[in-house]
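Why this split exists: single-chain examples teach little about how molecules sit against one another. For that reason, every record in the complexes split bundles all components of an assembly together and asks for one structure covering all of them. Below is a record exactly as it appears in the raw files.
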Amino acid sequence: MKALTALALCCGIALSTPALAADKPEDIIKARQAAYQFLAWNTHRIKNNVDNPTQFNKDEVVRAANAVQAVANAGLGALYAPGTDKGTGYGPSRLKADALNPANGAKLGQIATDFIREANAMATVAATGEVAAVSAQLDKLRGTCKACHDNFRNK
Amino acid sequence: MKALTALALCCGIALSTPALAADKPEDIIKARQAAYQFLAWNTHRIKNNVDNPTQFNKDEVVRAANAVQAVANAGLGALYAPGTDKGTGYGPSRLKADALNPANGAKLGQIATDFIREANAMATVAATGEVAAVSAQLDKLRGTCKACHDNFRNK
């Protein structure tokens, strides 16, 4: 379980906490899909603000960026339990089996580390209220999303 | 739109931001359902820890409580746009029309204010790592969830 361990370590959570022991795979998949959908809503709000600079709403961007940071640091590794590449939450899981393959542990761990670092930076940059800086940081953050999708999510 | 205004004010977000202007009702409902599902995952993790005090994982509780706080402060009022009591996101919306009725603005605003206050307190209490205090604060937080469900969510 090297891949999972890497995710667990970089997300700072033990995989065998009591919180998950009784959870069914479909519940875990649903929670995972909800976490990333909530994340997408927040990055979408930041994007719409940088795309409409004359209406830039710093308060909204800060709230959204803080939410992004909290999702990234929530311990999402717990939502990559064995077997959850198959099954249905809100819809069929799009997670590739590769994501749960120990051989990919280092690669997955690096992507997760990058994601958390850029999400933390997103919150810091949002607080400055500087549109260009927020836009640049959003690009960095989305790059880490894309790295995971390209490698570990089915189309 | 007094009800929406109250929610918007207490959640600190304008309802007519560019971020939402182009969003379809089903996208808003999906984002709302995801936000509360992610919230539920996090309160669930806190509950499992207080229910298993010998395995209490302070790190997990802190991460979950910080996520709860970020969701509560994300500006969820934006997800209660007119018409979103009907329609389907991941599933049919369970929001009662009453939630979007201006006559219920004060009531809804109070529930939202209570929710945000208790979510902020949840993060503060989690950081102490005191199981009994975390348990008591979780009860307070869940009381505000129940108040909204009892009044504004269909069974």
